[in-house]
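D-lactate dehydrogenase
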Amino acid sequence: MKLIAFGMRKDEVGFAEKWAQKNQIDVEITEDLLTIDTISQAKGFDGIIALQTIPYDEVLFSEMQKMGIRILSVRNVGVDNIDLVAAKKHNIMVTNVPAYSPNAIAEFSVTQLMQLLRKTPEFNLKLKANDYRWAPNISRELRSLTVGVIGTGRIGRVAMDIYKGFGAKVIAYDLHPKPELKEAGLYADSLDDLFEQADVITLHAPATKENEHMLNRDTFAKMKQNVLIVNTARGTLINTEDLIDALKSGQVGGAALDTYEFENPIFNHDLSHVDIEDPLFNELLGMTNVILTPHIAFYTETAVKNMVEIAFNSAQQFLTTGAVETEVK
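Tokens:
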């Protein structure tokens, strides 16, 4: 059995090397992303381990089939950039890592909200200007607020528990309600009902064609004045242009964004010596009521270790037994 891992970051390499040594499996590691220009590196291997936000399209799956590749095991949860129809057509098994550390993302989302509530960006600017006055940046307490959680999968449920620990009222919405949460009366009657009630809206839903721009001009208008938005899920859930307008008008009081609609050319790249030619991103970056982070909510030692090991285990399991628990269907 031979595996090749594409797009391996330095922080992942050690975990991959330990896994290969422990399992006595030949593993090739490359920093290159998986593209039509790099897939030739996979010739002679049985499976591909990958992590990237750029698409896995039919051309790639066609090439995989020609090379005898049997599995694409991705080191993340989201599969919205994978052409699953093409994968099936070319007999390529696709697996993901359904849960690598829900706590990492849930904890980060709460941390970012707390910074919004306590006006941390504004106070940081005042400190740089030697302005040590309190007013007018008075805060709200989390326990006095209603938090609306959209998406009650593993991450959303952990976030709900944390918010409840702070004493906040928690309501939720999910297209596929969890029986135990429904029984506890935690679901709003509808998404519009959640918009009307929530002081904070935090997104923990996957990206689909149906929920693209879930938050937009019309939905912002249904929310409470000064609502706070937290997005550690997917950038496409929010219409960025509409969000900027809502931030300017005060309809949205602040936003903590760990994902961005057009993040691929920006996040996880060193752009310190170039100008970012994205006017929407630059406008967000200049807003004092916006906290931007480069898709790092997941980025803990525990999560990275789990992402690598589960992806490699999935490939090994499938190539050994012909079946795998983490198959994406």
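Residues 2-100+301-321 form a domain with the Rossmann fold fold (CATH 3.40.50.720).
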